[in-house]
Every structure is written in C-alpha cells, then in structure tokens.
Amino acid sequence: MTLDMLPGLVVRIMSVSTRTGTPERREVAMQDPRIRITHVGTYVPTRRVSNEDRLAEFGFDAEFLRKKLGIAMRAEKEPAEDTSDLCVAAFADIERRAKFSRSEIELCCVVTQNPDQKVPHTAAIVHHKLGLSKGCMTFDISQGCAGYVHALALASAMMERFGLKNALVFTSDPYSKIVDPNDKGTALIFGDAASVSLLSTSGAGYRLVDATFGTEPGTTECLHTRDGALKMDGASVLFHATHEVPASVRSLLAKNGKTLDDVGLVLLHPGSKRVVDLIRKSLQLDDAKVPFEIAEVGNTVSSSIPLVLQQHVSRKKHDLLMLSGFGVGFSWGTCILQLQNDEEKH
C-alpha cells in the first residue's frame, strides 16, 4: 500500500529547518491524486467597453491606465444574458475540448454572488439547461475573487469523500449587474466572463496538492453592495492583498517543502496591474512567472484565474502551478497544483 492509496490523510513529515538547522515536524494534507483539473472551458462576451474613452471623465490619464489599472477594455455581457447563460456558453467551450458525457457529471457548482435570482440556486438552473442527470448534486458558492480556489478545494474534497468521478466547477459573476457606471472607484475595473473546470478521476491534468485560506476580521466593508451598487475601498483592498497574499504563498510552499523556484507559474487574481505588480515585487518574481493578462477583458472576479489557467491546463508545460485569489470578505485562497499524467499509477 502506498500513500497515494490513502487519500485525505494528513501526513507528518520530519525535515530539517533551513532557519535553525534542527529537525522539525510539519503536516502535509495528502489529496487523492486521481482527482485532476483535466480541462477548462471559458466564455468571454464579444462586446467591449473602452476605458480610454472615460479617463478624462474620472480625472485619470493614460499613465494611470497603463501603470496602475492595466485595463484598456472591459468585456460586458448583453443585457439579455444572465449568469447561467454565461455558464452554458463556457460549457459549450469545454465540450469542444474534452470527451465526456453529460450523464457522467455527478457534481455541479457555480461560484457567483450575482445569481440569476435569489431562488433557486444558479447551479440548479445550469443543471436544467445542460440536461444533467438526476443524481447530480448542485450548489452555489457565494464567493468573490477568491472563489475559484475555494471551489476547487470544496469540489475536490466532496469528490474524494463520496467517491465521485466527474465534477463541473463554474465561475460566473457578471459585475455589470452591480457596478455603478458613474462610480469612479469601480466603473473602469470589472468585466464579465465565465469558466467551467472539469474535475475528473481519469485523464491527465492538475491535481490539488494543498491549499490555504483566510478572512481578515473587520474588513467586510472594503467590498460591499449598498442599494444594489458595488462599493469598494480600494486602499483597503490594496493593503490587505499586498500583505496577506505573499504571506499565504510563502507559508503554503514552506508547509509542502517547496520554494518559488519549484513553481512554474504563480497565477494571481489580477485585481489591477498595481496590485499584481506589488505582490510580484514582494515575492521577488518577474513578469513571466506572474502573468497579467486582463488588458482586453477586465477584472472578471472568480473567472479571472481560470481564464489564464485554461491555456496552461491545455499545454501541461509546468509541473507545479500556484493559484491565489483575493477580494470580497476580505478573504483569500491560495493553492498548489501539480501535473499528474493519466498513465501514472494510483
């Protein structure tokens, strides 16, 4: 019997501290290596809204757009498109990429804080629109920009606990529903998009090695809605992101006996160019290792990480990836993904 045959264990490992030179004990969560992200599908609306056209209106200049915001265009859904419609469009993309049967899906979850309606949950609506099986569990996760990492952890844990073989994790949070187009603090930031990740026990892909999460007490007002419109304390978000995210990345790597040199890419939630640049600087990493790729779509909330992850899951170039999302709450989630080939023994 090998450790891979004992999923869900917390293994105690003895190692030598690089700081003190003395033996120390650390605990590493062992996740079932059969559960992998095998494919990612995405949908970005074709409609674009230019930020350059509104700079003067808000008192910004081109340098602000280039150096701090980093978003020239924002994707925006059509008025008739709802949250579940974006999910269905992302599913159409993954169906073109992956071979699986809808009848094989046993779990369907949607990360959103802007559902179609209050009742029922959006995952149930997506389930109906896709014609998934009666035995498929459905639920929503009310999380923001950290939602994708939370959803991966929850879906993987439920698959492991209940012996599920295939799950769909959707992200769809069209902030165009709640952003005030005249609000200087939010109008130029957010874009609409959706993603779906296929988690499966068959096929090559990236498995969740470990994750860490947190919520800073007393910070719920840094991102909230008032009278149906989004309000953001940008300075507070920037402060907590640049303090908590680097710390979570370092602590998770140390817990798993890894360093940033072992990681191929660090995929941060791209809240803005300034926040990504500051976190990148704190971690002492270059642009190539921490990509920022939202100039033409905007900050798409929980969809921002999977939009970038899609190409890397497809290429399977890097052995280790790190994901870190942060935002509403103020909360964050950071995880390590490891490439696992189908031919490897379980």
UniProtKB/TrEMBL annotation:
Q: Which UniProt keywords apply?
A: Acyltransferase, Transferase
Ranges of residues in domain Beta-ketoacyl-[acyl-carrier-protein] synthase III C-terminal: 253-338
What name does UniProt use for this protein? Ketoacyl-ACP synthase III
One GO MF annotation is: 3-oxoacyl-[acyl-carrier-protein] synthase activity
Which species? Polyangium spumosum
In terms of InterPro entries, this protein maps to:
ACP_syn_III_C, ACP_syn_III_N, Thiolase-like
Beta-ketoacyl-[acyl-carrier-protein] synthase III N-terminal domain boundaries? 139-216
Q: Which GO terms describe its biological process?
A: fatty acid biosynthetic process; secondary metabolite biosynthetic process
